[in-house]
Design a protein that fits this description.
Two copies of one chain form a homodimer.
Chain A (H helix, E strand, L loop, with lengths): L9 E8 L3 H18 L4 E5 L4 H7 L7 H6 L3 E6 L7 H15 L4 E7 L17 E7 L9 E4 L7 E9 H18 L3 E5 L7 H13 L7 E5 H10 L6 E4 L1 H14 L7 E5 L7 E5 L16 H13 L3 H16 L13 H12 L2
Parallel strand pairs in A: 1-2, 1-3, 3-12, 5-10, 8-9, 8-10
Antiparallel strand pairs in A: 4-5, 4-11, 6-7, 11-12
The complex binds 3-isopropylmalic acid (2 copies).
One 3-isopropylmalic acid binds next to loops of chain A.
Chain lengths: 358, 358
């Protein structure tokens, strides 16, 4: 988190990407400008057309000095990348993953909050609410570069993938989650599989619990990933902050998006908590080529991600206003088809804007 | 699947294990004897007290020649192992995992079927049903012995875990799942994460699709594990057979148990499909020390597992009768507390027996 500095513009690198990524970005920038103008916050946008479309034109997802260009920005807003025909490993290793790693965005913060006006697919017990945050380790773990194949094309062929967990990597993720749990007050659930089957997870547990000694007020409880996934469905109300490795966090946050009723509204912050590097904010949803071009993409995931950016910039009041306008829009029933409504992307964004200015 | 042979008894090694494992086993054996007597099927039970309790007495989960003893049996019925104070790696590597691997039980078959009389925690759309099967690879993948730690106790400490996928291992799991999908007719969903982040999963995909060429009638669709978990909640009715690696299958089947309303009734078959070695049947639930000794454990997971054993023995009619008696019991509302009822373990088992004999 950085302290606000009213004296200069905040430079934001804007990468709409592909498909619906390009449709949800413009309305989000309008909203940021509106809320910014009320909070003495000015933005300088750096637009980048980096995408799969860019790749098919140039053979690269972004220019060779793309990361250097991004390093000049204060923050990054990403829409979504991915397009049929461009292999995932190109679009991901060519843009998303290098950004997450180069800028040490080692925290992927994903709120799982059932919004008013949205029905969960779960039959919740009376008074049960879904409102927690998943802190996903975002740089190492199961997503390592180490691995490969041998004896290609023969019956003896095999593939290996190394999971790599470092003390520094686990400790900083645990510390971030513990601080958040300390401020929220509801305890920390740690996702694991420590029954001695997977060698890395007892190490994860040990580092989490060692780090937790600095937070005597936080109750930490370990859950096996299989049981934890079941509890997201059976008893989501019990969670406040969940900390998870890269892959476990990936699974848990899609499951989290499901139980709050739509992948179209879930946001995600790839954070470099120290602020040495830009952080990146993106919706959880992808480029959705199936609905691209129809003007019906839900902009709320991108808008919620922008509200997380405001929080990260230290403008929590502005962030809260955007989120309140999102809630008011949902309560008013202005919803895109993924939420059962009939509104267009523009109508939803206009409703958010209208709620901001009233 | 083996063809029935009426001329001899079926030898079943019985390992109740710990906690509620010991409470649900006896009623299950009574039910097997009853249904067996109606189908010309006789059982010889080989009782083993191998467990964490055995470990605290002897320092071993099972005797040194335990696997040799089990190899004499036709099939294995397992309750649950695990007890506070005995580390998981002892109870698992000392019994469950060596059995799964030594006897090449490379398929873990887990039906995910919403039973009549049970309410799903999901708000299902009208007419939507949950009735699919997860085929989990059970011998390799993310659960490999390869891995460890370096620089213990220093700031540089790290842990690694190797995932190992072999062509033979993936191919035989895929083939089993494809055969099942072919007979059920509803297509195959393959759990993956093949976007080039995890090296092993593109290999998994390739072997699954190569194997699928032998099954032109089966529609195979890949799903990323994160999206797949979300779809178990958002649209479970679309699945018929799901094939997954060891860890992905572990997560998906607990999630599957959650959406069918209780981990207490979900069963699991650890299959050696060729019948060279005994297969092992167990409930998905654990030893549940918190409710052990109260006589309220749900026996239906163990009973359903026994019905899967009957199927595997080639006695599908007997297996179907047991399952029908389980359904009748649930419809009659005879349920243990985990399902919202007030019946005891014995009352539920007696109701199943009564439905069998009428
Ligand atoms: C696209 C993919 C590499 C990515 C991930 O697994 O991290 C996505 O699923 C996410 O959660 O941001
Ligand atoms: C106890 C544990 C090792 C086991 C597994 O992960 O295989 C269990 O969760 C299961 O699903 O049978």
């Amino acid at each position: 988190m950085q302290s606000p500095d009213a004296s200069r513009k905040v430079t934001v690198a804007v990468i709409p990407g592909d498909g619906i990524g390009t449709e949800v970005m413009d309305p989000t920038l309008r909203i940021l400008e509106e809320v910014g103008s009320r909070h003495g916050l000015q933005f300088a946008w750096q637009h980048h057309d980096w995408s799969c479309e860019h790749y098919t034109r140039t053979g690269r997802m972004m220019p060779e000095d793309g990361l250097d260009q991004l390093a000049q920005a204060d923050q990054i807003l990403l829409g979504a990348v991915g397009y049929p025909g461009v292999p995932d490993h190109v679009s991901l290793w060519g843009l998303l993953i290098p950004i997450r790693r180069t800028f040490r965005q080692y925290i992927n913060l994903r709120p799982v909050k059932l919004m008013p006006g949205i029905e969960s697919p779960l039959r919740l017990r009376d008074g049960q609410d879904i409102d927690f945050v998943v802190v996903r380790e975002n740089n190492e773990g199961e997503y390592s570069e180490v691995g490969g194949r041998m004896y290609r094309g023969t019956p003896e062929e095999f593939a290996v993938q190394e999971s790599v967990f470092t003390r520094r990597g686990v400790e900083r993720a645990a510390r971030y989650a513990l601080e958040l749990a300390d401020s929220r007050g509801g305890g920390l659930a740690s996702a694991t599989k420590s029954n001695g089957i997977v060698h890395t997870m007892p190490f994860w547990d040990q580092v989490v619990h060692e780090t937790a000694k600095d937070f005597p007020g936080v109750h930490v409880r370990d859950y096996h990933i299989d049981a934890l996934s079941a509890l997201f469905v059976l008893d989501p109300g019990r969670f406040d902050v969940v900390v998870a490795s890269n892959l476990f966090g990936d699974i848990l946050t899609d499951l989290g998006a499901a139980i709050i009723g739509s992948i179209g509204i879930a946001p995600s912050g790839n954070l470099n908590p120290e602020g040495e590097f830009p952080s990146m904010f993106e919706p959880v949803h992808g480029s959705a080529p199936d609905i691209a071009g129809q003007g019906i993409a839900n902009p709320l995931g991108q808008i919620w991600a922008a509200s997380m950016m405001l929080d990260h910039l230290g403008h929590e009041r502005a962030g809260a206003e955007v989120l309140a306008a999102v809630e008011a829009t949902l309560v008013a029933g202005v919803k895109t088809p993924d939420l059962g409504g009939t509104a267009t992307t523009t109508e939803v964004a206009d409703a958010v804007l209208a709620h901001l200015t009233t």
